[in-house]
Amino acid sequence: MSKFWSPMAKRATTYVPGEQLNKPNILKLNTNENPYGPSPKVLAAIQKANDDDLRLYPSPTVEHLKEVIANRHGVKANNVFVGNGSDDVLAMAFMAFFDSENTIRFPEITYSFYPVYANLFNIPNEQISLNEDFTIQPEDFYNSDGGVIFANPNAPTSLYLPIEAVESIVKNNPDSVVIVDEAYIDFASTSAVSLIEKYDNLLVIQTMSKSHSLAGLRVGLAIGNEELIEGLIRIKDSFNPYPIDRLAIAGATASFEDENYFQDVTSKIIKTREWTTKSLKEIGFHVLPSATNFLFISHTEASAKDIYEQLREKDILIRYFDAEKIDNHLRISIGTQEEMEKFVEEMVLILNN
Q1: CA-based angle 144:146:150, to the nearest 5?
Q2: CB within 8 A of 316, min separation 6: which ones?
Q3: Which helix (H) or strand (E) holds 90?
Q4: How many CA atoms lie within 13 A of 163 on its CB side?
Q5: Are 345 and 320 in contact (CB under 8 A)?
Q6: Per-residue model confidence as pLDDT tens digits over 288-344
Q7: What domains does the chain contain, in order, with CATH numbers?
Q8: Are the beta carbons of 196 and 223 closer than 8 angstroms?
């Protein structure tokens, strides 16, 4: 630890992403990426934007992209904020709406960036235990002094909290901001965006990394009351008014405009998810009812860590969390149908070994 580090740098605890191996022919089922490429219209738009204009700064307000997003979600453009990936948007939301004087709440088992940001920005937090079946008890999040953040569907559990329960949390925190992180909502059911007009304390954050196959472009967004969006803009403009580059703007816009491709890819992933769920149950795994593009599984007679290590030796990457309460569970990203058939075959071999 350097004597030159600031207090913020000293207390930082880094987020650990999924393993990235620099090897060919890896079956990569550990980072919840989309197994299908982006829309051909996205690639064409990026190619078209790759011209002499790259010498110029991109739009700091990305007005056209915000209008496209707003049209898709049935809101106004001034209800939309766009950032450099949803993690970037989350960081700005922590700075804009949470502070060091009031305790925020988030689930004990959830996206591991929440405690990282809370620690980095010196925000006191209460991590709420989940039920035995990993579901959220909405009442535990009522009347939070500093605010609430939770992922829906949750990660790594894959579980979806019904919109009625989400609304109850928002309704019972009238004086603080409730952030709903919907990174996987396109594989689930109703989005909390439907509640934006009704509640001025609700901020919904989404990403284009999963359902839109654009993890490499880094585009995330937030939808909420105009005053919340203004708060995010104030934070953004305080340190980086140009977070979205020209190629990302072009690609993201084209992706939102190609609804047919989006629906086709999403439906294929959901279909393969259901097939994989059924197949894993048939060989003895307990699989939580997923509303995401991944599964959260366990086996009563097989060690999750051992399975993870054996698959890794076969160049198949999945996610193992060496953490209390989930250390005998595995998170499996959904690949193509062919990839998941290969994965299940290897799981059978491991269990029979």
Answers
A1: 70
A2: 26, 27, 29, 343, 346
A3: helix 86-97
A4: 11
A5: no
A6: 999 999 999 999 999 999 999 999 999 999 999 998 899 999 999 999 999 999 999
A7: 7-37+260-352 (3.90.1150.10), 40-258 (3.40.640.10)
A8: yes
